[in-house]
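Bench notes, afternoon.
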Amino acid sequence: MERINNLLITLVEKGKAPSVQYLLFDRDQILHEFGAGFTDVINRKQSEKYTVYKGFSVTKTFTALAVLQLAEKGKVDLDQSAKGYLEDFNYSEEITVRQLLGHTAGIPNPNPLSWIHPAAKHDSFSGDLFFNQIFEKHPKVKSQPGKKFAYSNLGYVYLGRLVESVSGMGYEEYVQKNIIEPLELEPSDLGFEYIDSALYAKGYHKKNSLLNWIMGLFIDKKVYRGKPEGKWQPFLPYYVNGASYGGLMGSPVGFMKYVQELLKDDSKLLSPGFKNQMFTENQTLDHQPTGMSLSWFIGKLNDQRYCAHAGGGGGFYCEIRLYPEKGIGSIIMFNRSGMTNEAFLDKLDKFYFESRSPS
């Protein structure tokens, strides 16, 4: 595993990220861990595996799990119209719950970079009011439901509302009670709220970069940015406007315990049959594979099938992954901005599989 450590040390030393945390694990234990760098650059605070990072779109896997739990209880039919569960659904009655989960509903996906609000205004912020306006501005689907894969944050806003409508709980409350609490985690290890600022990594962006300039077109730097710390500029604490598509925060250990539970045959979170549905690749109406299951992207590394999701935005980037047939999972978390799926775990996990292959 020395090659993993060397790659990550070099990355931090060359200034590609203020800090990084990587965990490789099976169902019961950590197989390899590595952490380096600072979660607070100016105060030189070291990164730890219990430090809290933003998970952004990794949250979608929790939302999908919540919907599947409700389906397991007979409260949701994945192949019925989403409109049957959502009185305020703005799109076609042809769109099913399964299509929302697998991003084949055709719902638009406007740029979400500005969909944030300062932590100081969180108590007065209304996600429903905000997204009702977004839906009004984007009233038409981009493709026929089921015709093709098209990633959509708005689809997962609706899935969060579906969880609320069917369960009778707020979305965050449902996830807390039915996913996070069964994992027996500390409140800071996975959650939607800032609890103790000392536990949280600062999110950073390279001060002199094209992406920094682009992000300045979408957000008010005076509201969301702190003073530069060397070549890095920190984000001030903020929340994502839609909890169900990107609101989770957590430590590497918190996200690891979530993935470990999904790797188990007797998972507390979901029965084997519904778990198999969650990790089975979807097809379009034309029977073409979409590269995604019910919220998890599907891929292969060293001939090993994996299910994965990335999460990125202002100040943070992360990936979670599991290899179902091998009972192995991995996580990487950075406190620097990331905007696309970088498949960074390909660069690291391959060393594990190569070390296990017969020479």
